[in-house]
Structure formats: C-alpha cells, structure tokens
Specification:
Blueprint lengths: L1 H13 L2 H7 E9 L4 E4 H8 L7 E13 L2 E12 L2 E14 L2 E11 L1
Parallel strand pairs: 1-6
Antiparallel strand pairs: 1-2, 3-4, 4-5, 5-6
C-alpha cells in the first residue's frame, strides 16, 4: 500500500486530466494557495484541462498515517519543476479505499 499511494500521488502531479478523472472522488475537495482557494472536483477537472503538467516532482519528508482501515493520510514537502520554474509546498492528501480502488478525497498545498 505504501508505494501504491505515493505512486498515485505522483501521478496527480505529473499526468494530465485523465489521472484526475480516474483518481478524484466524486466529492473531492482540493485547497490551493490563493487565488485558487478550495475547489470541488468539477472545478479541479476544469483547471487541469490544457494546463502544462509538472515535468518532475520530488516528495520529501514523507509521512503516512492510517486513522481508519480505508483511509490514509499522506503528508510531505514537494518540490516541482515545469518550463524552467520551480515550486515548493507543504502538502497533505487524504485517500480513501473504495470498491474501485484508492480515491483522493482531499488535497491541500501551502507554499514554502
């Protein structure tokens, strides 16, 4: 499970809209720095449409907690790069195991 969830998390950084369609729960919420703010699934899907994805991401200081059998929290510091520009943030993601596999129910980023 450990590597699987980190691989899914990485996909959301590096892959396009299709990964979000597959991995976001129907009631997912994501919170990004302003002007992003809290976004629901539909808004997230619209925002990644045609957006240049990150070329690389390093996820350090990884922590994983499972407060319930079907729920796992990931927390980490991310350093990402695209088109020559860098971005660093403290991140947390809450994943839930469903009949269809792991689905992201919440993600939050705080710029470092």
């Amino acid at each position: 499970m450990h590597d699987e969830l980190w691989d899914l998390e990485r996909r959301l950084w590096l892959e396009g809209r299709e990964a979000y369609v597959e991995l976001l729960a129907e009631d997912a919420l994501m919170t990004f720095p302003m002007p992003g703010g809290p976004l629901d699934r539909a808004t997230v899907l619209d925002s990644v449409e045609g957006t240049t994805r990150w070329e690389a991401v390093a996820m350090d200081d990884q922590l994983m907690r499972s407060p319930a059998k079907s729920v796992t929290l990931l927390a980490y510091s991310a350093e990402a790069r695209r088109e020559g520009e860098g971005y660093a943030a403290g991140c947390s993601s809450l994943w839930q195991m469903t009949e269809s596999g792991w689905r992201l129910i919440h993600h939050q980023q705080t710029p470092l």
